[in-house]
Amino acid sequence: MKLWAGRFSKETDAMMDDFNASIRFDSRMYRQDILGSAAHVKMLGACGIIPPADADLIRKTLFEILEDIEQGRIEFDLSAEDIHMNIETLLIERIGQVGKKLHTGRSRNDQVALDFRMYIRDEMKSIKALLLEMEETLIKLSESNLHTIMPGYTHLQRAQPITLAHHLMAYFQMFRRDIERLDDCYKRVNIMPLGSGALAATTYPINRMMVAEELGFDGITENSLDGVSDRDFALELASCLSIVMVHLSRFSEEIILWSSSEFGFIELDDAYSTGSSIMPQKKNPDAAELVRGKSGRVFGDLMALLTVMKGLPLAYNKDMQEDKESLFDAIDTVKSCLGIFIRMLDTMKINKANMRDAAKGGFTNATDLADYLVRKGIPFRDCHEIVGKMVAYCIEKKIGLEDMGLEEMQKFSGCIGQDVYESISLEACVNGRKVPGGPAAESVRAAIESGKAFLEEVKK
Hints:
The chain is mainly alpha-helical. The chain is built from 19 helices and 6 strands. The strands form 3 sheets. It has a two-stranded antiparallel ribbon. It has a two-stranded parallel sheet with strand order 3-4. Strands 5-6 form a two-stranded antiparallel sheet. Strand 1 and strand 2 (157-163) form a beta hairpin.
């Protein structure tokens, strides 16, 4: 008989049991459910709401159940619907009537909200750890490629020379913001809803702050209706995870391009590539492609959550059971993608010669030639036009700007002198951009040191 069946005169249909049950996916919250219940019953005993001896027995038995679950000695029952009722049923089977006192002063509504927040809180720590590992990998790669010149792109056209370190540190900044977003989101996740009851709190003299402190929460929800019906924290986390996937997907796109024969900038390790069933020569960047593809999955999880919540009246509605599968999937997907991406980056080979050759092509030093003419006293707009004509000339001749003879250059402007060649070398183009945030080695080195300081601060 179900623990809530007193009002009912007949059993629910087996198909309804299956449709209504959430144990298949919320069973992963068993630990949080038990820890939450243990804190709740400790408070009940301390407040004299139930006898302290009963509270002690319930706590002891809950921890025994936790050990049995983790040792694989317990199989959850579909007929008990969810993880909360499964645990309570097991408790009552073991200690009888005393076990029925556990649910005093709470509802499944505030219980599930508690478990969900506790579970998310733990998973956020795991995701943050992976993001920190990603950042450390990017720092390591950047330090070893401080002088690896490559083309920077706009519109996927070669634009100006930069370094691989500068490019990688751009992603460092993206993932840094992801860490900061998670930390900020954590503040709103780490608020305890237990004590809200079904929607209107409880008449028992409970001590909510005691439970919050026992479970490591920063505070308690301040409105019982909001406490059980709020899923903003889940929406916010799904949004944060979606942005993480945007960054991983953009990075994946570049990895895929760079590993192609047309670019040849990198070669992925065999351990993170696959072959073709028909073409023996193929080495496919499937890890990066899957990460790129799974971004859509996480975006879909966010959209599903938004759609579930958008039309719900206060307070709890059964629709909200749909919050977990979507967020669990987003969490699992992001963790999987970060884990594989870090290893893929850490093992890839970098073809520095191909990167440099690509930077030499495409007239990536054209802007620097224009800047050279500006320093000779010519207005920038005129310089732009002069260099544009020089580029057209070089395209026709199939040469680079640096391949032009001095006399050829001087046909376009008499201000050009022998010093032009040094000014438009790749090294000069890169290292002349020393402004904070620029690609010059000293600027990127400063960014790396700033990144290291950020990581040290975050780890405290």
